[in-house]
């Protein structure tokens, strides 16, 4: 048993509040395990390797504590040493989305597996789903639902836009019965933020039997999600974005209403690995402090995820503070884009994500002209991922420790390097083709059109 | 660029042959990436935490190099820095099962996801599968196949036994057309080893159209698997056993014949995340050195898996040597059990696994009397997992670095601690109930019945 003085010495100061706050709400044994997690013998000497700043929309930068947890010797998945980490991770996951009754499922897999879980457990062949599509990931979510036999109706927003309340109301009033309404909270391809509260409340008002599926892979822990208050039935997440851990863990939260739908379905669940009937007893057992087996959990990644959740939820920066920090960082990136004369992909302020920016390149530059230059300067961003426009814009992730730990200076670095790289890329282009003429579309350094009065020629580009 | 002298200094001696051997068969850029992987800036100072010796049948002990790779800062999944690791991991996976044409699929998930891949891609609803069942994991494999609509016929071996060639021949000659023959190579619940070569060859002879599914989760890299030579169509594996990495990566290898079956199926593939049609272009792209996206790969775990494969396949211990080391270790454990008067669960020498032992407890002792005692002495083993007998036997894993790196002394420690713990447990029982009488079944220290002449009373216990 470690003495309290060793604990105090070994813990990083910003983690200390975690323990006192935790101690009032969870059992002593659990707290002890959490302390053990934070007091690694070698943690004080572990520093991750020097590396390029990773600011794509996930995976993201993660803390030394999280990486170190990922490098702890594997624990037996049914061992008493491991159970508290898994149980805690389940409990803490609820807090991220403000639910007291939602049921987390933590399963080895990528974020994509969350779509399969929803489709396999909650939709029976032939049932209808209304999908609010705001980008590439909306398309893929629809593909997944259809692969399980769903009949999917889509409200397809124009590139850079999201479905409006009027469109949603119109669809729900058209007389068709929807088993579920699904949407991508932040589409990673466009940085478009959907109004989750509006969607959840509108569905509750006009189609109360319908389930509400929120794909939060690119929003969870970066954007506010009020699971219980907003009438959300499923949040689909993954470990490697706002949740601040390496990729490989599918994080899904289901409402009790959703679990009832599983219980009452007529067709068998369309899968084995994704079956909540098989996983539910496992999650309940670990949360109750006992082991159970269906498939081997990714023990190291669960410890890393646990370490990240502890930092997110038990540090002196509250969850609400974190959301504000994401808004502040997003505002800084947007202002920098504006100063550079660049346009954002999302067409409106209110539906622009706070953990991710998608920004049009200046006229005449492609992704290959810019992204490698930033990489050479130590900043990894990425290009577009939408089939039509993917070479016309780039994306910068601003999530997790990059945003929350200001002492890192990550956002400053991103802005500085972006500016330098664009300047160099444009100069390089000018040298290569000195006689190239303007097409009338916005170029680097030139003021962008106010979005609301952009002429058709500029809007067509969206 | 690192100079060769730095490389030579930083590499552990046993990894050096890897590079020269590799250099002759893969592209320079790939080799350079592999060197970069091995020459971590901080690797020389990283040592995993002191911990209990983990000798359950997976997760297992992993090396410092593997854990350190798991703690490298996440790389972007489409970044040029990451692609060679993924490409290499795919190539090296083939070598583990001696195939030149098999197609590896490396997907975030547990070993269980491999069953879903097989069932969703290769079996259409109503098709028949013959399953050779030798334990709990045979039951679960059958459950998974049935969940996808397969009609499963089982050859159910008695506890501790595997299907015989005569039984397999009889089933294949009965006139029913089987889409596939499936078996658990080593059933983790019983330590029973199936004769994979016999099964593959018998199917080829009597039912050449049938696919052969080998569940190798508990055998891959611990037992020889000759994929091409033995007529195997799918090997299902996972990262956390013989492959020597943390859990969370599903490792599956499919034959070209199996991929053809996917192409020619009539029903759509029964899933999205498990669809090989979606994953095949991704695996091919990464192997060709270009990125592609379907779902975010577990970048850290792939680096850890890559590090482990490099140690398995490019050290001065050949793969064939490794298999022999597993046999030697298994023999030592079996001899120790025999010296203690204990019986093994597998009833015959030829079908006893080499990476795992399942051993009956002495009369009068349950799992709870023994397993916690070993844990207190720093050795983590586990109890049974078969519904009938799970409290009557225990399991010890002997895989990976525990077996291959003899300087660790793991096997000695296991045997010593097992002996001490059993002695203490029996003495404790004697004190608690001094008048307890023998039932005639084997007890600690008493010579076991030769298996072939065990009386019915003893055999019934199996």
Q: Could you describe the 3D structure shown?
A:
The structure is a homodimer of 462-residue chains. Chain A has 462 residues and is of the alpha/beta class. Chain A folds into three domains: 1-38; 83-313, Type I PLP-dependent aspartate aminotransferase-like (Major domain) (Aspartate Aminotransferase, domain 2, 3-Layer(aba) Sandwich), CATH 3.40.640; 319-430, Aspartate Aminotransferase, domain 1, CATH 3.90.1150.10. Helices cover 41% and strands 13% of the residues of chain A. Chain A has 17 helices and 14 strands. Chain A has helices spanning 4-10, 16-23, 28-38, 64-70, 83-96, 112-122, 136-147, 165-173, 196-206, 256-264, 276-287, 299-313, 319-339, 367-376, 401-404, 410-432, 456-459; strands at 53-54, 103-108, 128-133, 151-156, 180-184, 186-187, 192-193, 211-215, 234-238, 249-254, 356-360, 379-380, 382-383, 393-397. In chain A, the strands form four sheets. In chain A, strands 2-10-9-8-5-3-4 form a seven-stranded mixed beta sheet, with helices on both faces. A three-stranded antiparallel beta sheet of chain A has the order 11-14-13, with helices on one face. In chain A, a hairpin with a 4-residue loop joins strand 6 (186-187) and strand 7 (192-193). Residues 1-29 and 438-462 of chain A have low confidence and may be disordered. Chains A and B meet through helix 4, helix 6, helix 7 and helix 12 of A and helix 4, helix 6, helix 7 and helix 12 of B.
């Amino acid at each position: 048993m470690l003495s309290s003085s060793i604990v105090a010495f070994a813990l990083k100061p910003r983690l200390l509040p975690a323990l006192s706050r935790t101690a009032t709400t969870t059992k002593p044994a659990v707290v002890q395990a959490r302390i053990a997690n934070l007091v690694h013998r070698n943690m004080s000497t572990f520093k991750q390797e020097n590396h390029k700043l990773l600011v794509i929309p996930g995976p993201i930068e993660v803390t030394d504590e999280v990486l170190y947890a990922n490098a702890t010797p594997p624990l037996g998945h049914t061992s008493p040493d491991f159970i508290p980490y898994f149980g805690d991770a389940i409990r803490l996951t609820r807090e991220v989305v403000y639910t007291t009754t939602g049921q987390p499922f933590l399963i080895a897999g990528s974020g994509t597996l969350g779509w399969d879980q929803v489709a396999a457990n909650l939709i029976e062949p032939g049932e209808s789903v209304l999908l609010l599509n705001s980008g590439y990931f909306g398309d893929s979510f629809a593909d997944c639902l259809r692969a399980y036999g769903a009949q999917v109706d889509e409200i397809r927003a124009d590139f850079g836009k999201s479905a409006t309340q009027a469109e949603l109301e119109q669809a729900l009033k058209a007389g068709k019965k929807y088993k579920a309404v699904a949407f991508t909270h932040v589409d990673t391809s466009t940085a478009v933020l959907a109004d989750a509260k509006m969607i959840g409340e509108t569905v509750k008002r006009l189609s109360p039997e319908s389930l509400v599926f929120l794909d939060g892979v690119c929003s969870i822990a970066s954007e506010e999600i009020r699971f219980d208050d907003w009438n959300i039935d499923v949040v689909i997440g993954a470990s490697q974005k706002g949740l601040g851990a390496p990729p490989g863990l599918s994080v899904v939260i289901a409402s009790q209403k959703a679990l009832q739908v599983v219980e009452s379905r007529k067709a068998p669940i369309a899968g084995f690995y994704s079956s909540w009937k098989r996983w539910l007893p496992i999650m309940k057992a670990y949360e109750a402090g006992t082991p159970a087996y269906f498939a081997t959990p990714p023990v190291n990644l669960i410890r890393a995820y646990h370490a990240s959740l502890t930092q997110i939820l038990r540090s002196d920066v509250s969850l609400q503070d974190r959301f504000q920090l994401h808004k502040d960082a997003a505002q800084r990136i947007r202002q920098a884009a504006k100063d550079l004369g660049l346009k954002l992909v999302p067409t409106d302020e209110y539906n622009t994500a706070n953990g991710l920016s998608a920004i049009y390149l200046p006229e005449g530059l492609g992704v290959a002209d810019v992204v490698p230059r930033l990489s050479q300067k130590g900043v990894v961003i990425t290009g577009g991922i939408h089939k039509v426009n993917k070479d016309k814009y780039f994306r910068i992730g601003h999530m997790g420790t990059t945003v929350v730990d200001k002492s890192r200076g990550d956002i400053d670095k991103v802005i500085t390097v972006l500016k330098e790289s664009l300047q160099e890329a444009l100069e390089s282009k000018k040298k290569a083709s000195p006689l190239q003429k303007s097409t009338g579309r916005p170029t680097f350094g030139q003021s962008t059109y106010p979005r609301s009065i952009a002429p058709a020629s500029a809007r067509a580009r969206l």
